[in-house]
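Action item from last week, closing it out:
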Amino acid sequence: MNTAPVLPCALPVHYGGQPAPCDVQVVDKYSGQSYRLLALAGGVVHGVGKLNLAVMSQQQLEARAGSLDLLGLFVLSNHLRHDSRACITHLQDRWGAIRTMTVTGGYHHTATAVARGAGMIPGDSRIVIIQSQTEIRPSCRHPGCMHSALKCNKSASNTPRTAKRAVSFHTSKASEQERTCEGLKFLLDNGDAFEDGDALSALTSIAQGPAQCCVTGPAFQHMLQQDDLSVVETVMRNVVVFARMRSHQKGQVMDLLGERRLHQVFKGQPRHVPGLCKTCMYCGDGINDLTALGAADVGMAVGSSEASAAATLAGRKSSIAGQSVPQLRGPA
């Protein structure tokens, strides 16, 4: 089973003896309503003994199986808690300096729907979804693929929206930013339609305020592997949703938001990426949140004993609503 509904595009999957179509309308229909989708596929692994089978990775098994048969999609309820929106609104209204965001391993379409429902993204806002080109198979890189249930409007794909405040990119940095963006795909989500976006226009729209920002884990990884880190800075200052993030990437987000800095090896040399020096509180409920809980200034584990190992605070409730937390100092 795969928690991100891109299985038909990422693997040679068949349905009813024919290649499974990558524009499955049910994916858009349910993920856009914040449901969680699991794709189930099966295949036969030939020429592998039981002992070897036990130690093989998922990727090795898929390579040996070759073509897989799509058995079905599970649609699981993933609705917001009744108190989620009120809790987010309370944080934003009572302490206006608090910035809220979602960091999840889930599919970006589902994550943005949840963020809209929770009030992190205004309902009428345009969202720039930044993906890595490696996430999309060449045959699936047209706007209608995986979004076939939505109308595609290309007429304004290269037209930046009116800015709320003036922010300019230095001309000397423009070419570097273009090189950084070469491996990225920018998709504009208007709520009821999708458009392919121009990279620099999309980044300007994010920096100036008209557009919200969603970044996938593979795109985040691509940005951190480039010489120019100005795109990373623009994203970190404005992003609202991180989707398809692995555990260590959640920790990297905390490092880049806080004072710790991100330490990495780049082209064989150590590189230290400065953070935004914000005071960060991270809330999580699973083992994949351990790294971020430990990296944040305050880590709160909710509803799970797994996450409490690395958390500053732990509660049995599956929500932060009504929880007592220490007073945070500085911009949060």
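Closing note: Confidence is low (pLDDT under 50) at residues 1-11, 138-172.
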